Structure prediction request, 215 residues.
Amino acid sequence: MEQREPEAPHPQTQHKTSFFGTASVVMIAFVLSRVSGLVREALLGSTFGASYALDAFRAAQRIPEMLYYLVAGGALASAFIPTFAAYLARGERRLAWQVASAITNLVLLVTVAASLVTALIAPWIVASVLAPGYDQPTQALTIPLLRWMLASTVIFGVSGLLMGILNANDHFLLPALAPSLYNLGILLGVVLLARRWGIHGVAVRGRRAARTEQH
Prediction:
């Protein structure tokens, strides 16, 4: 009796399996980021309490996040990712990487320039925009924290593009884990450096965690 070879899985079945696998990875990573975020906030609260140091840290975070969303976030959402994915879909990989290189250089230059300008006028920004109602010690602490964390604007800008590139190439695990790595960096800052450096240790570890996301 002739033995029949097993039939290959239908392409549509393979596509559905891949889709559900990807969705599961992203969902688990999302839950992990939320849980790590809650742990981060609880540990910050228990370590610094209702102190002016924590108020200064939260105020200093706003400008780097705003710069990232205005510069890198806009470039990602409106131009880069759809264009890059379209070139890949047409098989024009060389042109896709040329576009990726050009946009990365542009985002790097713009975020560096914006960070330098912000660092120079940090005292005015803190007094007029970030913490106009805070007392003098809080404002004085917010200024160096803001300058330290401006480096994360540059790092997040480039890492955001790298995450878009990975997603366009169907690699979803590392981009999905990026928020958890950021939270982990802040947690390590609280546990390892806060006793010696205070709130500055949290800012330093948060910046190093942003660097880790790029690798």
User: Anything to note?
Assistant: The longest helix spans residues 11-48.
